[in-house]
Each structure stands twice: as C-alpha cells, then as structure tokens.
C-alpha cells in the first residue's frame, strides 16, 4: 500500500506538500560539504537543526544568510516534529541537518523522516559525510556485508545481552563509542567476541585523525599507552570471517572446529589469509590456532600441507621454526 500524500485545500485549489531534504553536513573537515548541500540549505524555507547555534556557524561559513531555523532535537522531537509536518503539508520545504554527519543515523532525525513518510511527504536524501561508512571503508575489514550498531547500552545486563546477540552475526560490526566508555567496551567485546580483528577510528576527517588496526587485545594494549580522547568508531570483524561466535562458542563447538583442523584446508587457508593481512607469520599462526582451538604447531603443519611441505614437517623441521612453537 502506498502512503497517503498530504494535500492542503486553499481557496478551492489543492496545494501539494513540500519536500523534506535530509542533508548531510561535515563530521570534521568543512571541505567535505557538497555543493548540492549548500544549495539546498540556501533554497529551503526552513532548516531543522539539532543545535541551531552550531548550524548558524556552518551556514555563515558557506555564506548562507537569512534562513529560518527551528530547533529539532531528541528532547523536543514530538512537538517540533508535528510543527514541521504542518509546514511541509502547507507546501514549504524543510532541510533537516544534524550537528555532524548524516541526519537520521543514530540521530533524532529518524523520527521526523518516519513522520514525513507516514504522511506521504516526499523525503529526499542529500548525501555526504558519514562516520560509520568512512571508518568501514578504511578499516581493512570486509565491507561486503556489515551491520551498523551505533552506540551500545552503557553498562550492565543490557550491554551484555547486546554483545551476546551480536557475537553470532556473520557481518562486520560498526559501533560509535565515547572516549570515557571505550576501554570498558573493548574489554567486554574481548570477553564476548574473543580476540577478533578490529579497526579503531578516532577523530575522523579532523586534524588529529587516527586509525588503529589489529586485534581487540592489541587495541586495549594501545589504549593503555595514552588516554582516549575525541570521538571513536569501532569496526569489528564479524563472526563468519572470525570462524566462530566467540570464546564460549569455541568451547561448545569443539568437534566442528577439530574437524576443520583435521582436514587442514580451513585452518591452512586461515593461516595464509592472516599472514597476508598481518604481514607476520608468528601472529598469524597464533591467531589462527586460537580461532580453531588447536596448537600453533598444528596450525603450522596445516600451513605446510597447504604449501606441499608436510614431508618437511614430519622430519622435525617445524621444531626449528620459532613461529610454530607453543
């Protein structure tokens, strides 16, 4: 069923509704603002902004003056949303912006978009900067399938339940996190997911942008060297590429993991894949062994078999390779 389009009858004529434009704004670097976004903001009848002072500064930077702004944030979204829908129904156009990035993505703008769609009002995206996609694109992890989670529950049972649900998702996971919760979140991820690969993006597009790429345990070690500051996006390897659903699943699914290790193919492929990604054979053997629940010596033997080197392994040469030591 198609949504009913709102129309207003004035003086015997039917007035078509206006358009709600969902306008992305920079997440740090002002050069990421698009020409189209500036034009839409200049031409819109109203601009709905999460923080009107911040948006006025952005408009001033791009020479957009004399605009009517209305505050639209989590605390007033019901009342402000109803007023904006009325203006749209009267044929006026509204540009929706957030403090940074794409409105509606982990953002109160989602509510206004839902109202507009339910009312049959046209909604037009004006794409641009997005922290989640930016971090994912540069993470070095799989981008073929991903799940945007946003912010996790802050603590306690809800946090544990959320992570447990996500542990078996066969897709790359993308999170937002605040600096004061970063360490606790990483520790809980390590407990629930195991030592998966992760990319930690900090201050994206800003002067002090940083990426850390490694495992969750290595990210915690890195975090211990300096206090966290700024805004973070966490991109975490999914369950399918990791090979299981975390430490608990690894123990309960031992028979299946052993079967993969015995035939050698899955284990060997994982070792070689990790060697290419990490550039370090010892780390690759260690991580693959942990994922499959086997010793590093078994992982090394599987690697040699894949490369046609099993005969050397049976003559004891693995004992001379420090990468195969337990």
Structural notes for this entry:
The protein is of the alpha/beta class and 326 residues long. It folds into 3 domains: 115 residues, Cobalt-precorrin-4 Transmethylase, domain 1, CATH 3.40.1010; 110 residues, Methyltransferase, Cobalt-precorrin-4 Transmethylase, Domain 2 (2-Layer Sandwich), CATH 3.30.950; 62 residues, no CATH class. The protein contains 15 helices and 12 strands. It has a 5-stranded parallel sheet, with helices on both faces. A 5-stranded mixed sheet has the order 8-9-12-10-11. Strands 1-2 form a two-stranded antiparallel sheet. Strand 10 and strand 11 form a beta hairpin. Helix 11 crosses helix 12. The longest helix has 14 residues. The N and C termini lie far apart (62 Å). The N terminus is likely disordered. It holds the Pfam family TP_methylase. Belongs to the methyltransferase superfamily. RsmI family. Its main location: cytoplasm.
CATH topology of the largest domain: Cobalt-precorrin-4 Transmethylase, domain 1
Q: Tell me the total number of β-strands.
A: 12
Q: What's the architecture of the largest domain in CATH terms?
A: 3-Layer(aba) Sandwich
Largest sheet: 5 strands, parallel
Classify the beta-strand content into a percent band.
15-25%
Low-confidence stretches are 1-12, 248-264, 309-323
Query: Structural class of the secondary structure composition?
Result: alpha/beta
Discrete helix count: 15
Give the end-to-end Cα distance, rounded to a whole number of Å: 62 Å
Region (Disordered): 245-264
EC number: 2.1.1.198
Protein name: Ribosomal RNA small subunit methyltransferase I
Catalytic activity: cytidine(1402) in 16S rRNA + S-adenosyl-L-methionine = 2'-O-methylcytidine(1402) in 16S rRNA + S-adenosyl-L-homocysteine + H(+)
């Amino acid at each position: 069923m198609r949504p009913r389009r709102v129309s207003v009858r004035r003086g015997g004529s039917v007035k078509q509704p206006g358009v709600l434009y969902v306008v992305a704004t920079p997440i740090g670097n002002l050069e990421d603002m698009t020409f189209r976004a500036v034009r839409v903001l200049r031409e819109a009848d109203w601009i709905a902004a999460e923080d009107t002072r911040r948006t006025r500064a952005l408009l001033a930077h791009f020479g957009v003056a004399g605009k009517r702004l209305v505050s639209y944030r989590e605390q007033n979204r019901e009342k402000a949303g109803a007023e904006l829908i009325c203006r749209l129904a009267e044929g006026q156009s509204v540009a929706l912006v957030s403090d940074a990035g794409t409105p509606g993505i982990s953002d109160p703008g989602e509510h206004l978009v839902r109202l507009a769609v339910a009312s049959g009002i046209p909604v037009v995206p004006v794409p641009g900067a997005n922290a989640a996609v930016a971090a994912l694109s540069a993470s070095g992890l799989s981008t073929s399938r991903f799940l945007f989670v946003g912010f996790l529950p802050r603590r306690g049972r809800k946090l544990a339940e959320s992570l447990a649900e996500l542990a078996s998702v066969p897709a790359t996971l993308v999170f937002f996190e605040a600096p004061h919760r970063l360490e606790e979140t990483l520790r809980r991820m390590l407990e629930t997911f195991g030592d998966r690969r992760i990319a930690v993006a900090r201050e994206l597009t800003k002067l002090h942008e940083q990426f850390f790429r490694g495992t969750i345990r290595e990210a915690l070690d890195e975090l211990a060297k300096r206090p966290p500051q700024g805004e973070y996006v966490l991109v975490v390897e999914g369950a399918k590429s990791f090979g299981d659903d975390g430490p608990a699943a690894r123990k309960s699914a031992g028979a299946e993991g052993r079967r993969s290790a015995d035939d050698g193919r899955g284990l060997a492929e994982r070792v070689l894949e990790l060697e290419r990604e990490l550039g370090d054979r010892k780390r690759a053997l260690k991580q693959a062994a942990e994922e499959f629940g086997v010793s590093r010596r078994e992982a090394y033997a599987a690697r040699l078999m894949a490369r046609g080197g099993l005969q050397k392994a049976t003559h004891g040469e693995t004992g001379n390779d420090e990468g195969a030591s337990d």
